[in-house]
Specification:
Blueprint: H1 2-16, E1 26-28, E2 31-33, E3 51-53, E4 61-62, E5 75-77, E6 86-88, E7 101-103, E8 110-112, E9 125-127, H2 136-139, E10 151-153, E11 176-178, E12 199-200, E13 202-204, H3 215-219, E14 229-234, H4 242-251, E15 257-261, E16 294-296, E17 304-305, E18 318-320, E19 328-329, E20 342-344, E21 352-353, E22 366-368, E23 376-377, E24 390-392, E25 409-411, E26 429-431, H5 442-446, E27 454-456, E28 479-481, H6 487-491, E29 508-510, E30 532-534, E31 554-556, E32 575-577, E33 583-584, H7 590-598, E34 602-603, E35 612-614, H8 643-648, H9 650-681, E36 695-700, H10 706-717, E37 729-730, H11 732-735, H12 742-751, E38 753-760, H13 762-766, H14 768-783, E39 789-793, H15 799-803, H16 806-814, E40 818-819, H17 827-839, H18 846-861
Parallel strand pairs: 2-3, 3-5, 4-6, 5-7, 6-8, 7-9, 9-10, 10-11, 11-13, 12-14, 13-14, 14-15, 15-16, 16-18, 17-19, 18-20, 20-22, 21-23, 22-24, 24-25, 25-26, 26-27, 27-28, 28-29, 29-30, 30-31, 31-32, 32-34, 33-35, 36-37, 36-38, 38-39, 39-40
Antiparallel strand pairs: 1-2
This protein binds 2-acetamido-2-deoxy-beta-D-glucopyranose (9 copies).
One 2-acetamido-2-deoxy-beta-D-glucopyranose binds at residues 263, 296, 298, 318, 320, 342, 344.
Length: 862
């Protein structure tokens, strides 16, 4: 029901956008747009025009001859002229016999002939707001012939009295009268006899000066609304105190009103004005026979809800006391509200809820308590409200939840919940955003909430996991938002990897902004219905095939650090967002580029949001500008969209090239050189004695560097990644025997490989296993006189940082290390150099070994 209201609202707003902005000074499809056209007269428009817009012009006079006969015209907007006054003459609209809607609003000063509106028998809606009109507009016979009038807007004028002309007897279909923002001051002297017998859907006296009626006048005030009924009556914003409201309710005794609005008002003592009265048992007593359904006393200063104040409103369906200063709800405050279904107490100053607080609300289904300061809730506050379906406790200070009856929605965002252990709750929808939940183990508890289908856990503090329950099968959950937490901290320690295991009905999962730098391979196992997965704004650089469930169709990987994702992982999708990643535009990206060009997957974002980040020379260039024809030669060229420019500057370039060829283009030159030598000399250099070693090289690096090592080295060297790579490499993720002791894995790898390549990074130095492996590889130098260790330094590590570690210090004293190039174009050269090092057999000079042996001995003791 609420959803539909919202939809209508949204729709209404979109319709209400100023039609004048659409087109100007022309006619099309029976609509004539003539706003802002410097007109001083009505323009000539096609005879079949249905809608005519003439606002924002200089038309100062409309007479009987202004309009040609326009029999189809239904809507005319001629308000808001740049000149004033505007004079509307006798029979000004009589050539528009079928007009339904006439808008003359906001003219500032409007001079109306008494017969201005003759000849408009079909007019339904007349808008005269903001026109400086006085009492005469109601008291004279202006609307005499408007027998179809349903809606009259006279808001923002200068009407001071409510004594409409007897002609209103004849306006039998009048349903809506808007008198907002006028100056009607005395309701008691109103004479609404000509409104008698009418049923108004909407009658607004909001924001007049109705407070001026004095106490004595009220005492003998006849009911101004006698023999009138209202669907909705708005008398808010009239500065009424508790006493005035009481007089009014007494005076209108018996008048049937569906919905009555007093807010904004000044009832109540506020915070500390004890002399001002809060409403009490008498205040609304006069409404007993009005059959009120909706009462709105929001926006005021009520501090205390006294006992029995609503006892005479037995038919009330909805009560809105939001935005007051309610701090105290007395015993039996809601007694008598047998039929109340919606109670709005939002934006007050409530701090505690007691067992008796909601006593008497047998039918209530929705209580809105958001934006109070509720910290304490007594055990039985809600448990007797058997019909309660929605509880809104957002934005309070709750640390512990009381028991609830079986709910549809529990809205608990923006509180201080640190744990859900021991919570007794059953709900279809659970909102827990922005609480202080830190233990991911709480999810195993929440998954046991009966009927739970939607859970919102955004912006909590999930960062560790202690499991108290196990996964239960057959979970009903459909939607879960875990965005903006710290799940990386949980999963990097291999904790609670089975947290999603039983969610076989889950369709949408948000894991965005969780600092995730990698995903445990098994983490999504069990999510057999998952359709949408949001991994945006994490730190993911690599995705392994088989990670995502087969059912997945929508995947958001925007703003991660993907270098060159393999398209295989995207095969099941229909919508994919891979914008703003860190693409490395080399030939490894080819498969993705080919896929992007052909796929029928909908790619979110624009092409310019998918761009290269490395190499620096083409950083920022969209992927769609790249070609990969040269990729047989391991080179990716930017499409020559600059070719014209290149030709005109060719002379200059020849000179410049010569100068900077080495500094700038050494990478490309090197590739050319390789290609040429390859052609001349023939195939790869022979790999020496295959039989002796199982592997050419063991790559030793920190686990945290795996993605980088894989993308930068393994993919370019290891023959299992690409056939044309020449080496058989050994590395932990692939080649270590599971279950074997880690250290013996490392030893075996070193013994079975011709060379050991240590990728020394900051992470490497922090990792005890790495340094141990380094030490072990180095020891072979002494034991069997073979120099098997190749050290590659990556990143900005200073000499000092390296020297701190003894094994490395020893190595550096005798040997040189390789440094990963800072300039992207040097990478090929570097890889070639590394390949040579792997192939080279280095014998150890005998003399040296004896001396160094001692050093090693001390190292292993130390
Ligand atoms: C209206 O007059 C103003 C100023 O004379 C001019 O700038 C504007 O273009 C005119 N508008 C039209 C629609 O003729
Ligand atoms: C006001 O009320 C009296 C009777 O109470 C009635 O005679 C008179 O016509 C009413 N109308 C106006 C506009 O004063
Ligand atoms: C109401 O309508 C009738 C018939 O059309 C007419 O005779 C009468 O004068 C009208 N009354 C007023 C007050 O306009
Ligand atoms: C209410 O007003 C109508 C129209 O003026 C009249 O016919 C009817 O008798 C009135 N009823 C009462 C109870 O005054
Ligand atoms: C008060 O609540 C009712 C329904 O609960 C709603 O229609 C009305 O708009 C609310 N008033 C304000 C000022 O929000
Ligand atoms: C309660 O009133 C506030 C405004 O005062 C409004 O925003 C909210 O939607 C209302 N709640 C319900 C359930 O109508
Ligand atoms: C993916 O997430 C980003 C960042 O939150 C967002 O801007 C983008 O609209 C999302 N893409 C899709 C297709 O929903
Ligand atoms: C993209 O595909 C079209 C044919 O579908 C082909 O003509 C074009 O060369 C391709 N572009 C790239 C950059 O591969
Ligand atoms: C997308 O293309 C593949 C073949 O490339 C085809 O099997 C699949 O049905 C297509 N999907 C849609 C939704 O068109």
């Amino acid at each position: 029901m609420m959803l539909r209201q919202q939809l209508v609202l949204v729709f209404g707003i979109s319709l209400a956008t100023d039609p004048c902005t659409l087109r100007s000074c022309s006619s099309e499809a029976q609509v004539s747009w003539y706003c802002n056209c410097n007109l001083t007269d009505v323009p000539l428009v096609p005879k079949d025009t249905v809608k005519l817009f003439l606002t924002y012009n200089y038309i100062s006079q409309v007479t009987a001859t202004s309009f040609p006969l326009l029999e189809h015209l239904l809507l005319l907007e001629i308000g808001t002229q740049y000149v004033s006054p505007v004079t509307i003459g006798k029979g000004a609209f009589r050539n528009l016999p079928n007009l339904r809607v006439l808008d003359l609003g906001n003219v500032k000063i409007l001079h109306l002939d008494l017969d201005a509106f003759v000849g408009l028998p079909s007019l339904n809606v007349l808008r005269l707001f903001g026109n400086d009109l006085g009492d005469s507009i109601l008291e004279e016979r202006y609307f005499q012939e408007l027998v179809s009038l349903e809606e009259l807007d006279l808001s923002s004028n200068k009407i001071t009295r409510l004594q409409p002309h007897p002609l209103f007897y004849n306006l039998t279909v009048l349903k809506k009268v808007n008198l907002k923002f006028n100056k009607i001051s005395n309701l008691c002297e109103s004479n609404l006899t000509s409104f008698q017998g009418k049923h108004f859907l909407l009658f607004s006296l909001r924001s007049n000066y109705l407070y001026e009626t004095d106490k004595k006048a009220w005492a003998k005030c006849p009911n101004p609304f006698r023999n009138i009924t209202f669907q909705s009556l708005d008398i808010g914003e009239n500065g009424w105190s508790t006493e005035k409201v009481k007089y009014f309710c007494t005076a209108i005794k018996g008048t049937q009103i569906g919905s009555l609005t007093f807010g904004v008002h000044i009832m109540g003592s506020g915070y500390g004005f004890a002399n001002l009265k809060n409403p009490d048992v008498d205040t609304f007593a006069g409404l007993a026979r009005s059959d009120l359904n909706v009462l709105d006393i929001s926006h005021g200063y009520i501090f205390s809800l006294n006992s029995l104040i609503f006892q005479s409103l037995g038919n009330l369906d909805s009560l809105n006391v939001s935005k007051n200063k309610i701090n105290e709800i007395k015993n039996q405050a809601f007694f008598g509200l047998r039929n109340l279904r919606v109670l709005n107490l939002s934006s007050n100053l409530l701090g505690e809820l007691y067992d008796y607080t909601f006593e008497g609300l047998h039918s209530v289904i929705y209580i809105d308590l958001q934006q109070n300061h509720i910290g304490m809730i007594a055990e039985k506050s809600f448990s007797n409200l058997v019909n309660l379906k929605i509880i809104d406790l957002r934005d309070n200070a709750i640390k512990r939840l009381p028991p609830f009856p079986h709910l549809a929605s529990a809205l608990l965002s923006d509180n201080k919940l640190m744990s859900v252990v021991g919570t007794k709750i059953a709900a279809m929808q659970l909102e827990l955003e922005r609480n202080w939940l830190a233990n991911l183990g709480d999810l195993y508890i929440l998954f046991q909430v009966p009927d739970l289908q939607y859970i919102y856990l955004k912006q909590n503090r999930f960062s560790y996991c202690v499991k108290r329950h196990n996964v239960i099968e057959n979970n009903q959950l459909i939607y879960m938002d875990l965005g903006e937490n710290m799940l990386q901290l949980v999963w990097e320690r291999d904790l609670c990897l089975d947290v999603f295991r039983a969610l076989s009905k889950l369709q949408f999962l948000h894991l965005n902004n969780n600092y995730l730098s990698s995903l445990p391979q098994e983490i999504f196992r069990g999510l057999t219905s998952l359709k949408g997965l949001n991994l945006a704004s994490n730190l993911l650089s690599h995705l392994s095939p088989g990670l995502f469930p087969q059912s997945l169709t929508i995947l958001n990987l925007s703003r991660n650090q993907l270098f060159s994702p393999e398209p295989e992982v995207f095969m099941t999708l229909s919508i994919l967002d891979i914008t703003h990643n860190k693409y490395v535009c080399d030939c490894a990206l080819k498969s993705l580029l080919v896929w992007l060009n052909h796929t029928n997957v909908t790619l979110a974002g624009s092409q310019s949001d998918r761009y290269c980040v490395y190499p620096p020379a083409i950083a920022g260039v969209p992927l769609s500008f790249l070609t990969y024809e040269g990729c047989e030669e391991d080179e990716l060229l930017e499409e020559l969209s600059f070719s014209v420019f290149v030709f005109t500057s060719v002379t200059l370039l020849v000179f410049l090239t010569a100068v900077i060829v080495f500094t700038r283009c050494r990478g490309i030159c090197f590739v050319w050189y390789k290609t040429v030598t390859k052609k001349i000399i023939g195939s790869h250099p022979q790999v020496a004695d295959q039989s002796e070693y199982k592997y050419d090289a063991y790559f030793c690096y920190s686990k945290n560097d795996f993605e980088w090592v894989q993308n930068s080295l393994l993919k370019h060297l290891d023959s299992q990644y690409f056939k044309k790579n020449r080496f058989t490499l050994c590395f932990e993720e692939r080649d270590f025997l599971p279950g074997e002791e880690h250290i013996s894995n490392i030893r075996d790898a070193i013994w079975n490989s011709r060379k050991t390549v240590c990728i020394v990074t900051r992470q490497f130095l922090k990792d005890g296993w790495c340094v141990e492996a380094f030490n072990f590889a180095q020891s072979r130098y002494f034991c069997d006189l073979k120099d098997v260790l190749i050290m590659v330094v990556v990143g900005s590590l200073s000499q000092y940082q390296l020297m701190k570690h003894k094994p490395i210090r020893n190595f550096l004293q005798r040997s040189r290390y390789l440094r990963w190039p800072e300039d992207y174009q040097d990478v090929d050269w570097f890889l070639n150099n590394l390949s040579c090092q792997i192939l080279k057999e280095k014998k150890v000079p005998k003399k040296a070994s004896v001396i160094e042996l001692q050093t090693v001995a001390t190292v292993s003791h130390g």
